[in-house]
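re: ur question from earlier - yeah i can do the single chain one, its not a big deal. heres the input i used so u can compare w yours
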Amino acid sequence: MSDAVVLLSGGLDSYTAAAIAKAQGFRLHALTVAYGQRHVREIDAARTVARSLDVARHVELAVDLSTFGGSSLTSDLPVPKDRSIDSGEIPSTYVPARNTVFLSLALGWAEVLDARDIFIGVNALDYSGYPDCRPEFIAAFEQLATLATAKGVGGARFRVHTPLIALTKAQIIQRGLELGLDYGLTHSCYDPLPSGAPCGRCDSCVLRAAGFAQAGAADPLVAREAR
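and the output i got, formated as tokens:
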């Protein structure tokens, strides 16, 4: 069985990507980054998701990007709500270089594990327009991984798997349901209420709700919060 490092945020997409990796026969090493995000509730969800996937190890790493700010997820800037999402516009919820930082950390761990595979749940269809979710970025990072590591210089080829990158949110949900995933374990909201419940109005909540509606499925998290 081959090892893979999976970036696990506790959200719907990362859960699905990790489950796909497991279904492909990889032994999972999950990495969750506490980066000073206002929706820190997702870290609790990542712990629950990691247990449900029976990962070999779950590492939580603190890299506080709120020190820099520059995003409504890592500062006091308001989170956009009740807006029409335009993937050609980069919203204030974009965290500068976040996926570059995350993949670099995953790459370091993968090299130590002698693993060649990294999974990340980025998506370039139903998303908020982040530049570090695009196929061009992933291809460039794979090239960087070859140039920047001892294993790469020695001839190893690292692969960054993006099994969701060309799927709609509805297709992602359908794939997860086929794998038997409980999306009630996940957290997607950028600006949760004091109770931890999703706001229902931010981009992430809107995309999630539309995905479940288009998939013809009920969101178990909504039902759980309603109880």
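Residues 98-113 form the longest helix (16 residues). not sure if urs matches, ping me
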